[in-house]
């Protein structure tokens, strides 16, 4: 179900002319990070730590141009 939803979302971004998708995920969420990485997302190198609560987040991106 997760893969189908992600495909629908990235297809909609592409159809609207987008060439890249991005998302934030908690750094301490290995299951979600593996899902995004298997889908093709890669860490962008950006991180943030919101003040309330202080949980580190990692940014992922996926280039949509040329995806099959």
Automatic annotation (TrEMBL):
InterPro entries: Acyl_CoA_acyltransferase, GNAT_dom. The keyword Acyltransferase applies. It comes from the Bacteria. GO terms for molecular function: acyltransferase activity. Pfam families: Acetyltransf_1. Residues 1-65 form the N-acetyltransferase domain. Keywords: Acyltransferase, Transferase. The keyword Acyltransferase applies. Its EC number is 2.3.1.-. This is GNAT family N-acetyltransferase. It comes from Nonomuraea insulae. The lineage of its organism: Bacteria, Bacillati, Actinomycetota, Actinomycetes, Streptosporangiales.
